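#lab-general

N.A. 3:47 PM
ok so I finally got the sequence cleaned up, no stray characters, all 234 residues accounted for. can someone with queue access submit it? mine expired

B.Y. 3:52 PM
send it over

N.A. 3:53 PM
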Amino acid sequence: MIRAGNDAANFGYGQNNLAPRIGGAWQPSGDTGKFVLRGGYGIFLSQPTGQAFFTGVFGPPFSLARINIGSANAAATFAQPFPEPFPTPDFFPYFPAYSPASDVTISTVSPGFRPSFIQQFGLNWQEEFAGNWVLEVGYVGTRGTHLLRTRSLNQALSASVESPIRGITTNTVANIGLRVPVQGVPPDSLQITESAGTSWYNGLEASLSKRLSSGLQGLCSYTFSKFSTAMAAM
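B.Y. 4:20 PM
back already:
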């Protein structure tokens, strides 16, 4: 693994992680085969796709993105659908002018971005309590860390009389642009892609099954589960 020698690139965390899996089964000694306890644990890694870094391709100074919809593209025709002139290679590198009154869009990827880390585990109990009838009860869980997410770094702050922001003491939609940490960048246009999300899944699974006998077969299942996510710090 090769890492960049500066802070302007990805640090390459999580490139050499191991993903072991282990499982086992236990049956009481002397049991006739009607009771079995099974358990397992595994680690899985998610390989991120290029989509996470796609927005950086259109970032200045070596590229320029133009999005024209609605009234901004009212002059478009089938003969000339795009505004001209088109930038030439000599136009780049191009650094858009910035000021508190500008409207700059910035997208970036966290230097600490790494593959997602998933842990799965479970414990299962099975018992044949009657001829051809099997009762199964088990717990399954999944823990996800370093999950991919995109976050806005320029969300508007909350203003008050005690803590005014640039003289603003109220919070309205109209003054959002005055309450952002970085003026000149819209509140939804300073985006960072990072691996800071987490998730939990816990589930209770139960089933009652009847093996095929006397021309009859049946299965009844029930799952009670809960899933939650959170945005953890890097």
